[in-house]
Amino acid sequence: MEIFIQQLINGIALGSIYALIALGYTMVYGIIKLINFAHGDIYMVGAFVAFFMISIFDMPFSIALLVAMAACALLGMIIERVAYKPLRNQDRLTALITAIGVSFFLEYTMIYLVKPDPRAFPASFQLHNFHIGNIVISSKDLIIFAISLGLMLLLTYVVNRTKTGKSMRAVSYDSEAAQLMGIDVNKTISATFALGSALAAAAGVLVGMYYGQIEPLMGIMPGLKAFIAAVIGGIGIIPGAAFGGLILGVTESLVSGAGYSMLRDAVAFIILIIILIVKPTGLMGKNVKEKV
Amino acid sequence: MNNKKQGNSFLKRNALSLIVAVILVAVYLGLHFWIAGFEIGGTRYKLNNYYTLNLYLMGMNIILAVSLNLVCGITGQLALGHAGFMAVGAYLSAILTVKFGMPFIVAILAAGLAAAIMGFLIGLPTLRLKGDYLAIATLGMAEIIRVLLINIDYVGGASGFSPIPKLTNWTWIFVATVGTVLFAKNFINSTYGRACISIREDEIAAETMGINSTRYKTLAFCLGAFFAGVAGALYAHNFYIIQPNVFNFFKSFEYLVMVVLGGLGSITGSILAASGLTIVNVGLQKVPEVRMILYSIVLIAVMLFRPGGIMGRKELSFSSFKSKKERGKERGTSGN
């Protein structure tokens, strides 16, 4: 039982990271119907930016986190402008292949620049372990949980209460009609990419802090997992992404806790395939009739 | 008069096939002797081992690119798990030859069949999904295969399966490559191929015309998987060892680049791109990161500036070398 609860806590920490990345996926998908394969690599870039900020400029963790988020927001907007915008009217296969290309470009440019070896992420604050019976909750878990929760609440506020959020919802509902109502679609899409990328960067920094290690290919698996999380919750639905992330994180921790850690990645994909077969629109999705 | 004309064109058509056959045999024999080594006037000519290996790889890459093109280009379904099918073929064929002492031909066919069955099992449920979901489901399938292989001790786990006898030779590569290309060409021109193309163009319209889209998509998927399995068997028996991690997402990506670069839907495009990229790979062997950066830039640039790839959906054929006037004349006579 204690092991179970311990794994549950680890799972929630891991799950909130998946949720942060999944939110970006789902927002981008909701607005331009593109699986942004490069999203996981933006997360990696975020971790590296924070790494260099802390180790070279000796910044405190919180400032480094903000710098990384800002840098990745910019990167996300540039990627959208250069690679995705010219393809907006092409078929989706073209855009998807481009996204894969961007993903590999980021990974291998990073390998070229910083070498493929893993690097130790500097520990920037004191660790405390809180003991409740035999269960250990480290301050890392709490920080991850608090920051993710805060960012998610912030995102909810932005999407539901601000003008940008309103135009994002309008564009995702019907981009042509939104344009006719005077919404600048290009600006809105840029804003979506910026927001999503900033969240991914935050996740990257948190993972660097949590595991104490970063490397240029670290984005692939979490990127795919976050996509799975988005699909579980129903792609394009913001609360769904957070929910899916938590489910996936907890499941993975439980599988590892049961002694099958080698099969962890396979389990995530099996969940994906089952969800796709049983309920392709995700747990929170509604069935949409296809228009001819 | 009419009869004579028909007879002429019949002869012409056969002459064309004959020319192709002669060229193929010449290429086969020429390279066969070059690989084995021969002597003219005291000088010895022999293709060195490194180039021979890359020639073999070129053949395998052509098989994989052409077979992936059946799924991505002809049927319009983005599949990202081609390396997974290759892994199934490679491992099964290696088990058959090493542990059960089967002849190579049995191992190759079994590898293809196993991959095709795998393709059927994964294809039937997931092919109902649209574009992007299918891409992720196939990617997931390939990852599951890889993770499972890592965890199976019977085939060596993560450290790989060895020793595998080197049974792949030029004859096998040549026969498999030419066989795949001829099959793909005939498939496209068959009723099945036409149905697949109609699904690519507009799935809903195709279904309205009475085409069972799931059936044809699954068929194309299984055929693609079959040839990937065959290529996997050739791959396994060309190297001493196979490791699960060789067949990862990057491998699938390489074949996708070949197909996209050559042109989604063009068999000759796939052949050109697969051969060309194999040669580029040889040149960039020493700098793998630069190779991948180059690959991704090529992919993005092709998508942005020439989304159809080098060849678009066209095929390179003998008639495309003739002048426009001649082609017009030909069309005129055949129309009479």
Topology:
The complex is a heterodimer of chains A (292) and B (336).
Chain A lengths: L1 H31 L6 H19 L3 H24 L7 H23 L4 E2 L8 E4 L2 E4 H23 L1 H11 L1 H6 L4 H27 L1 E2 L5 H14 L4 H20 L6 H15 L14
Helix pairs in contact in A: 1-5, 1-8, 1-9, 1-10, 2-3, 2-4, 2-8, 2-9, 3-8, 5-6, 5-8, 6-8, 9-10, 9-11, 10-11
Chain B lengths: L1 H35 L1 E3 L2 E3 L3 H26 L7 H18 L4 H23 L4 H21 L18 H19 L2 H11 L1 H6 L4 H24 L12 H14 L4 H17 L4 H18 L18 H12 L1
Helix pairs in contact in B: 2-6, 2-9, 2-10, 2-11, 3-4, 3-5, 3-9, 4-9, 6-9, 7-9, 10-11, 10-12
Subcellular location (chain B): Cell membrane
InterPro entries (chain B): ABC_transp_permease (IPR001851), LivM-like (IPR043428)
Protein name (chain B): Branched-chain amino acid ABC transporter permease
Structure summary:
Chain A has a two-stranded antiparallel sheet. Chain A has a two-stranded antiparallel sheet with strand order 2-3.
Alpha-beta classification of chain A: mainly alpha
Biggest interface pair, counts: A-B, 42 and 42 residues
Let me know the average pLDDT of chain B.
84
Share of residues in helices of chain A: over 70%
Dominant shape of chain A = globular
Order of helices and strands of chain B: HEEHHHHHHHHHHHH
Mean pLDDT score of chain A, rounded?
87
In which order are the strands of the major sheet of chain A placed? 1-4
Poorly predicted residue ranges of chain B: 330-336
- Give the helix level of chain B as a range of percent: over 70%
Rg estimate of chain B, integer Å: 21 Å
- Oligomeric state of the chains in view: heterodimer
Subcellular location (chain B): Cell membrane
InterPro entries (chain B): ABC_transp_permease, LivM-like
Keywords (chain B): Cell membrane, Membrane, Transmembrane, Transmembrane helix
Membrane topology (chain B): Multi-pass membrane protein
Can you describe what's shown?
- Chain A: Keywords: Amino-acid transport, Cell inner membrane, Cell membrane, Membrane, Transmembrane, Transmembrane helix, Transport.
- The complex is a heterodimer of chains A (292) and B (336).
- Helices cover 73% and strands 4% of the residues of chain A.
- Chain A is globular.
- Chain A is built from 11 helices and 4 strands.
- The model of chain A has no long low-confidence stretch (mean pLDDT 87).
- Chain A has 292 residues and is mainly α.
- In chain A, the strands form 2 sheets. In chain A, strands 1-4 form a two-stranded antiparallel ribbon.
- The longest helix of chain A is centred in the N-terminal third of the chain and has 31 residues.
- A two-stranded antiparallel ribbon of chain B has the order 1-2.
- With 336 residues, chain B is an all-alpha fold.
- At the A-B interface, helix 4, helix 9 and helix 11 of A face helix 4, helix 5, helix 10 and helix 12 of B.
